[in-house]
Design a protein that fits this description.
five-stranded mixed beta sheet; globular; 5 strands; mainly beta
């Protein structure tokens, strides 16, 4: 089976850590299908004081969290462990992406 690529945006207290553990995190872009061996890009949430993209890694364990009974609409959640394979070489956060927020810019990056 081919490994997939995912992204996670969460509070990261130690961005230089060699291993990250995320418990019961909301998933993004099909993240409910995340599995051991998949690649992940780790974004330290700017809402929590983080700089944006900090690292990428490989999923070493993944467990889906069961939905709560009686709640009609729930975002899927997973608990994952990530082995960091590289630190970001440069910042990639909101301020670095601001220039591509003008949809009438006419360039391919928008």
């Amino acid at each position: 089976m081919m490994s997939m690529m995912f992204a996670i945006k969460a509070e990261v207290r130690y961005p230089w850590a060699e291993r990250f553990v995320f418990s019961a995190q909301k998933t993004m872009y099909g993240g409910k299908h995340i599995a051991k061996g998949d690649t992940i890009f780790v974004f330290a949430s700017e809402n929590e004081g983080g700089p944006g993209l900090i690292a990428n890694g490989i999923i070493t364990s993944a467990k889906a969290i069961a939905k709560k009974r009686g709640i009609a609409r729930q975002t899927p959640r997973v608990s994952i462990t990530v082995k960091r394979t590289a630190l970001a070489k440069r910042l990639l956060g909101r301020s670095e992406l601001k220039y591509v927020s003008d949809w009438n810019y006419g360039q391919p990056d928008t």
